[in-house]
């Protein structure tokens, strides 16, 4: 079966609220091998909501709708679903008691218009919403041609929608799918998106199961390898040879698997596994490298200290970068990056350190040192590993890519030393 996600709310169309519901629902459906072919957003307009159901059911077996279950007159998703299936709205005593109980819990008077939340399309399976007044529902029926259609109505607030999706909707929908979907993320660095795709184009053009989907992120390309099978174990068996072939083509130093697709997670795992302590010294990235590492649980075992030395004075006073080095080579140079990394390791007493210094822009570049030029250095076991990169884009893009490159250089420096 396939599904369409219909999210109701004028605030979504205006950009006041980010539509995280569609992303969450799509991921959950993918896990049980129900494909999502379309996602739609419609404002709080009765005619457009009804049309949204008509269009959704014309091209999908399942329509999952979020929003429009409140007590006001523009909350009409239940009525729209009832109209599609040509059934009447009926009163549900348990839902009425639920709304009253929730209001008593909030210590508020029960408004009369909240009675609307006790009515549902006839034949609905009603889902109790433990986190809000609006109960959800599932309605199974047929279209005009006798095809089975399933409408699922969920509340709009994510804190209410997500538990219902996990605990009620997914178990219900599992009866319509006898497969599971499992995927792994392969991170590719040092190779651009177009070049990486071209290197495996023959595999992509002939793919069936598993499938490969590339998408670019800051300083890396992620290939999601996804398989469908009767079990997760079978999916993993299907993925393994494809994964190994991709790593072989990209090179082991450029490609590796992470569950999250984040370079920092791979680096943090390696630091913790090997018990290698680290310090960071940042100029143009302004603490981004340290922040990404610190986001990984358990990193406190190995992350000792982070230095943000933006000015020349800070580089000299905190990291002991020589004045002569700055005057002769400049703050953005291989020499300064080396002294920053060495100074951080000495100041924090760590096994490894990484530094970044560059021109993030939009101003400040020269012909010799243009905007986007960044030097990164890792100091480890008495050796310096320096990377010079030239990025384009906005200030934030340049900083983001530099942080990614710095984190990956830590990884490759450790693995290159046979640790």
Q: Mind explaining what this structure looks like?
A:
With 419 residues, this protein is α/β, with parallel strands linked by helices. The chain folds into three domains: 2-176, Molybdenum Cofactor Biosythetic Enzyme, Chain A; 180-258, 2-Layer Sandwich (Alpha-Beta Plaits); 263-416, Alpha-Beta Complex (Maf protein). The chain has helices at 10-13, 20-31, 46-59, 77-85, 93-106, 158-173, 193-199, 201-205, 232-250, 263-274, 288-294, 312-319, 323-329, 334-348, 395-416; strands spanning 2-8, 35-42, 62-66, 89-91, 119-121, 125-127, 136-142, 148-154, 180-188, 211-217, 220-229, 255-258, 278-282, 303-308, 352-358, 373-380, 383-390. The strands form four sheets. Strands 2-1-3-8-7-6 form a six-stranded mixed sheet, with helices on both faces. A five-stranded mixed sheet has the order 14-13-15-16-17, with helices on both faces. Helix 11 links the parallel strand 13 (278-282) and strand 14 (303-308). Helix 2 packs parallel to helix 6, helix 3 packs across helix 4 and helix 10 (263-274) packs parallel to helix 15. It comes from Sedimentibacter saalensis. This is Putative competence-damage inducible protein. InterPro entries: CinA (IPR050101), CinA-like_C (IPR036653), CinA_C (IPR008136), CinA_KH (IPR041424), Competence-induced_CinA (IPR008135), MoaB/Mog-like_dom_sf (IPR036425), MoaB/Mog_dom (IPR001453).
């Amino acid at each position: 079966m396939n599904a369409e996600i219909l999210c109701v709310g004028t605030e979504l169309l205006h950009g006041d609220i980010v539509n995280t519901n569609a992303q969450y629902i799509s991921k959950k459906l993918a896990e049980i091998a129900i494909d999502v072919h379309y996602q739609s957003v419609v404002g709080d307009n009765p005619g457009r909501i009804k049309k949204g159901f008509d269009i959704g059911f014309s091209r999908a077996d399942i329509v999952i709708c979020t929003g429009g279950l409140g007590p006001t007159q523009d909350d009409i998703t239940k009525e729209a679903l009832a109209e599609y299936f040509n059934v009447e709205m009926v009163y549900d005593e348990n839902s009425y008691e639920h709304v009253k109980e929730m209001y008593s819990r909030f210590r508020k008077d029960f408004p009369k218009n909240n009675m609307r939340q006790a009515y549902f399309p006839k034949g609905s399976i009603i889902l109790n919403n433990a986190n809000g007044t609006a109960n959800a529902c599932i309605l199974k029926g047929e279209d005009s041609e006798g095809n089975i259609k399933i409408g699922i109505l969920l509340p709009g607030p994510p804190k209410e929608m997500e538990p219902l999706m996990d605990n009620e909707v997914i178990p219900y929908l599992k009866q319509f799918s006898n497969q599971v979907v499992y995927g792994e993320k392969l991170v590719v660095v040092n190779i651009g998106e177009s070049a990486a795709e071209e290197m495996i184009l023959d595999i992509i053009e002939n793919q069936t199961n598993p499938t490969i989907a590339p998408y670019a992120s800051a300083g890396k390309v992620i290939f999601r390898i996804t398989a469908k099978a009767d079990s997760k174990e079978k999916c993993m068996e299907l993925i393994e040879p494809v994964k190994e072939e991709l790593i072989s083509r990209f090179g082991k130093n450029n490609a590796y698997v992470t569950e999250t697709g984040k370079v920092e997670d791979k680096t943090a795992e390696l630091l913790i596994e090997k018990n290698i302590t680290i310090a960071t010294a940042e100029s143009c990235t302004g603490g981004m490298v340290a922040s990404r590492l610190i986001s990984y649980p358990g990193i406190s075992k190995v992350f000792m200290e982070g230095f943000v030395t933006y000015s020349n004075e800070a580089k000299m006073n905190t990291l002991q970068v020589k004045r002569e080095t700055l005057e002769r080579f400049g703050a953005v140079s291989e020499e300064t990056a080396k002294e920053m990394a060495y100074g951080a390791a000495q100041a924090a007493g760590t096994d490894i350190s990484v530094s970044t210094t560059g021109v993030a822009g939009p101003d400040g570049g020269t012909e010799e040192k243009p905007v986007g030029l960044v030097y990164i250095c890792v100091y480890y076991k008495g050796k310096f590993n320096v990377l010079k990169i030239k990025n384009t884009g906005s200030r934030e893009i340049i900083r983001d890519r530099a942080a990614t490159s710095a984190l990956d250089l830590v990884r490759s420096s450790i693995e290159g030393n046979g640790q």
